[in-house]
Amino acid sequence: MSDFFIDIIDDDGADQGQEAEVVSGSSSTWKIAIIDDEESIHQVTRLALSSMVILGRPIEFLSAYSAKEGFELLSSDDEIAVVLLDVVMENPEAGLQLARRIRQELGNHNTQIILRTGQPGYAPEEVVITEYEINDYKTKSELTRTKLFSTIYTSLRTYQHLVAMEQSKLGLQKIIDSSASLFQERSIREFSEGALLQINALFNIHSEGIFCISSGPLAGDRDMIVAPLEAEQHRIVAATDIFKSYFGKAIDDIDDITTKQTLHRTLASKEHQFTNKYICLFLNTPSQWEGAIFIKGDIDEERLDYELLSVFAMNVSLGLENTKFFTQLTQMAYYDMLTQFYTRHGVIDRCLNTAVKNGEIFSVCILDIDYFHEVTESLGFEYGNKVLVSFANRIQSILPADSVFARLHSDVFAVVVFDDKPLDMEFIAKQCAEAIHVDGDKLRFGVSVGVSQFLPEDNLSGEELLRQAEIALKLAKEVRRGGGQAFTPSLATESRGRIQLLGELREALASHELVMYLQPKVSLIEEGTVVGFEALVRWPHKEKGMIPPNDFVPVAERSGLYYELDMYVVEACCKILSEHSELTRIAFNLSANSLNRPELVDDLENLLARYGVTHDAIVMEITENSMAKGGIVIDTLERLQSKGWLIHLDDFGTGYSSLSYLLDMPLNAIKIDRSFLLQLHDSDNAAVLLKGIISICKDLDKKVIVEGVETDSQKAFAMDAGADVAQGYLFYKPMKLEEAVDLMKKQS
Ligand code: C2E
Ligand code: CA
Ligand code: CA
Q: Which of 14, 53, 161, 623 could pair covalently with 146 via S-S, beta carbons 3.0-4.6 A apart?
């Protein structure tokens, strides 16, 4: 025993040399457990090592006096670096047994076990040392202060190394985990911020600030576009703490020269840079993208795991690459590449929805270039694109700077204007119509404008807002190209009403709810004789009462339902003719568009055949509009006539076609419109003209029908002018089928 003490006291000389290796700077301690049943050993060991600082940390002693106690100590504290373990305690092998339990039961392989024995002669077998993972073996007398120090020092180094390796493994796992979550970030900015946060946490770096740079072109956040940079330049895509103000800037905008130079050096050498003041990690990916992460702070170079940092950097690079693709995809969905405006999706998601949520008052203005398709058709796509770009610039210059601009599709633009005053559409339309310059050409375009103002209480979605403005535009185009139309609540009701009516009309057709009224046509030659009827459709609506054709036929014509309606009417007429032999001739009205349907002739023929109706029992009334469409129409009319169809021209005098053109058409009769008769009062010319027309028709062997005859004088005039047939309230109003049948029964 006494040797032991003397050794420690005598061994001063070596202290200086050992102290030199002491590293300062850390606050935590090394925990060393003394497990020995002799109290004096505890005291001596503490005394020998108490004031020492090894590898930057002071020593903290923990004591146990039996193997049992020792086991409890190690189970409750997993940060014990070294165990100084007595072999003989409760039993001669208590120490060895404890060593085994530490390794096997506690699974602790990092703690360094130094076996100490009092008997110089006692030496455990080598198998025991390896089996129990005993790190060192000393007799108690061997442990002089110097020796004790060097043994502990080596053990601590090993322990530190083992722990670091274990942490590396954990760290690697953490990097993999964190990368997985980073990969879900959809914007470069979010991704980079996440990477910066994690690098500090993962590597325990107490940094003053950290930032991430990325090479261009970077399809990044809109924030970045505020300060456009050269494509090749690198810019800061995320920054924390002291570097925060650098966000969005270029490397050369960094004030600190060392930082700036380090970044340039990192990028030029394509290697990480490490010093005790900063770390600069080089990032790159297979697709030539480059970047860097710069961390400033007191870097503990000893304790930093460089391998892991490199792995991390690689992961961040790949993650950024990934995000870049995401960003590009979003970019394409949200931004129009041609004009850099939002797309339809973009303006709804990024602007309108938020504006609604924030309760803002704003207007949506939709602009449509009139006849733009003619530009692309005649001058090409590329030229058309140039026109669109200058037009985009034009609208940007007219509307307030804080407006949000979008290109909805080809030549249709939307502008969200944050102003509670209504927009001056006339002004906008006029400014847009000013000449624009494309490739040295001076071009002028008319623009249709639809505007719709929104108040928070409207409570509409972005999509609905846009659609309302589009309805306003559609109406503006219907009314007048090159003009504007504001969306008013009544417009909304009107268009909603129209859509509803259309649905109901479809149902009414399917359930045969529409009824035919018949208006007699009267001969002017054999006065008073009914020579036929005109079928006029009516819609007995459950709630709205009898709806006149002028209220729903135009809706059908605009929506494409006209053909179904026409066929419905023809079939109804055929049915009436087949069931009521008293009625010998019925005329029906055909929508202008139906004449363009290639299946028309066959469908009509089939109906006649199905009901056994002859061609001379049915008359088709068409308007001038039908023929203005040209093309196949004349062909169709000729085919119809050759099959025996009777065709009458309706509403004559309301269109603008020349008489000679109309008379060249395969027509059997002309119906002079009511408006002609109304003019007879005011002008002699009208009378002369009408007489002239009638006589030409007669020369060409076409019958003349005068419609809308309400007065005796009108009737007298028609007779005098030589018209054949008259139709009007003076004789009969449109009547129900039964009345028409009764009328004909009386006549025969
Ligand atoms: P339209 O073909 O010119 O039909 C004549 C319209 O003038 C009918 O109105 C008729 O009731 C009305 N009328 C007849 N005599 C007089 C009169 O003396 N004075 C006045 N003020 N009006 C008279 P309705 O039935 O309301 O039909 C209006 C228009 O709706 C028709 O004009 C026609 O263009 C269209 N229409 C009616 N039925 C059908 C149909 O079955 N199919 C298609 N496609 N259009 C139809
Ligand atoms: Ca008619
Ligand atoms: Ca008419």
A: 14
Tokens of 111: 């703690």
Q: Closest ligand 1 atom, CA of 729?
A: 18
Write out the two tokens for 16.
């200086």
**Tokens standing for 521?**
């046509």
Query: Nearest-CA neighbor of 522 among 708, 737, 721?
Result: 708
Give the right CATH number for 11-165 from 3.30.360.10, 3.20.20.10, 3.40.50.2300, 3.40.50.720: 3.40.50.2300
733 C-alpha vs ligand 1 centroid, how far in Å?
A: 11
Q: Tell me which of 626 and 740 has the higher pLDDT.
A: 740
Nearest ligand, CA of residue 534? 2
- Residue from 509, 536, 678 to probe ligand 1 pocket by mutation (most atoms less than 8 Å from CB): 536
Q: Which of 156, 198, 134, 200 is nearest to 59 (CA)?
A: 156
Q: Which tokens hold the place of 337? A: 């590449």
Say what the pTM is.
0.46
Distance CA 255, CA 478 (A): 61
> What is the structure's pLDDT at 41?
86
| Test site for ligand 1: of 551, 589, 596, 711, most ligand atoms within 8 A of the Cβ | 589
Q: Which pLDDT score is estimated for 349?
A: 85
Q: Give residue 11's pLDDT band: very low, low, confident or very high (50, 70, 90).
A: very low
3-class secondary-structure state, position 113? strand
The CATH superfamily of 510-747 is EAL domain (3.20.20.450)
Closest ligand to C-alpha of residue 550 is 1
Please give the distance, rounded to the nearest whole angstrom, from the Cα atom of residue 667 to the centre of ligand 3. Answer: 15
Compute the distance from residue 107 Cα to the ligand 1 centre, in Å: 99
DSSP H or E segment with residue 504: helix 489-510
Distance 369 CA to ligand 2 centre (A): 38
Q: How many residues are given for the chain? A: 748
Ligand 3 center–CA 594 separation, angstroms: 17
SS (H, E, C) 568-582: HHHHHHHHHHHHCCC
Q: What is the mean pLDDT of residues 616-631?
A: 81
User: Which ligand lies nearest to the CA atom of residue 734 in the structure?
Assistant: 1
pLDDT per residue as tens digits for the range 452-494? 878 777 777 888 888 888 887 877 666 544 455 555 555 555 5
Separation of alpha carbons 712 and 381, rounded Å = 63
Atom of ligand 1 nearest to the CA of 588: 41
What average pLDDT does this structure show over 76-102? 89
Residue-range domain boundaries for the chain: 11-165, 181-334, 367-487, 510-747
Closest ligand to C-alpha of residue 727 is: 1
Tokens of residue 21, six digits: 């290796």
Q: Name the CATH superfamily for 367-487.
A: Reverse transcriptase/Diguanylate cyclase domain (3.30.70.270)
pLDDT, one tens digit per residue, over 724-744 is: 999 999 999 999 999 999 999
Beta strand 404-409 with 412-417 is: antiparallel
Q: Where does ligand 1 bind, in terms of residues with CB under 6 Å?
A: 519, 535-537, 548-550, 553, 566, 569, 588-589, 591, 621, 650-651, 674, 708-710, 727-729, 734
Beta bridge partners of 415: 365, 405
Which residue has the least CA distance to atom 33 on ligand 1?
589
